[in-house]
């Protein structure tokens, strides 16, 4: 449900109007700032804020995601959203949970080091990822966005 405000609180997130900036601090310590526009209204709902002016509307989205850097093989938990893999010390295998219990789940995975060590994504049991048993890369800054449809994992 969207709320309209000029000054005040959005749920547990603080909204303040300064002389030149409209800023919003999130409960995790992040913030968003845009230039203040005279005579504006703003609305907020879950992860979207919209600013309306006489010239039109501007909307921006934000996601608060758990980010974790992994330096050795690990199982991804249900709270993992962004995984940064540092394979400097050796190859890493990321074991995924069952696709059936993670339908619609989206995970972002990126290899961040320059070593030639592999980062491998390994679905649960006999499950597949894009039709293969595993997906691997040894190239720095290669990333995978994966999603489960309830039966398998897919890369976008």
Looking at this structure, what is the CATH superfamily of the largest domain?
gp9
Percentage of residues assigned to helices? under 10%
**Class based on secondary structure composition and strand pairing:** mainly beta
Based on CA atoms alone, the radius of gyration comes out at 20 Å
> Which CATH C-level class of the largest domain is it?
Mainly Beta
* Strand percent estimate: over 45%
Q: In the residues, how many domains can be counted?
A: 2
Can you characterise this structure?
The structure is a single chain. With 156 residues, the chain is mostly beta strands. The chain folds into two domains: 3-61, no CATH class; 67-155, gp9 (Jelly Rolls). 0% of the residues lie in helices and 47% in strands. The chain has no helices and 17 strands. The protein has strands at residues 3-5, 8-10, 13-17, 21-25, 31-35, 41-45, 48-53, 56-61, 67-70, 74-75, 82-85, 92-95, 106-111, 119-122, 135-137, 143-148, 153-155. The chain has a five-stranded mixed beta sheet, with no helix packed on it. Strands 1-6-7-8 form a four-stranded antiparallel beta sheet, with no helix packed on it. A hairpin with a 5-residue loop joins strand 4 (21-25) and strand 5. The protein is globular, with a radius of gyration of 20 Å. The relative contact order is 0.13.
């Amino acid at each position: 449900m969207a709320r309209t405000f000029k000054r005040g609180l959005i749920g547990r997130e603080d909204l303040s109007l300064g002389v030149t900036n409209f800023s919003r601090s999130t409960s995790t310590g992040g913030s968003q700032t845009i230039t203040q526009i005279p005579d504006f209204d703003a609305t907020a709902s879950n992860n979207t804020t919209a600013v309306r002016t006489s010239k039109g509307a501007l909307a921006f989205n934000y996601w608060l995601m758990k980010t974790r850097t992994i330096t050795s093989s690990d199982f991804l938990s249900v709270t993992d959203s962004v995984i940064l893999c540092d394979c400097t010390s050796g190859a890493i295998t990321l074991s995924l949970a069952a696709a059936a219990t993670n339908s619609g789940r989206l995970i972002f995975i990126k290899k961040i080091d320059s070593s030639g060590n592999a980062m491998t994504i390994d679905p649960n049991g006999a499950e597949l990822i894009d039709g293969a048993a595993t997906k691997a890369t040894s190239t720095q800054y290669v990333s995978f966005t994966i999603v489960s449809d309830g039966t398998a994992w897919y890369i976008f």
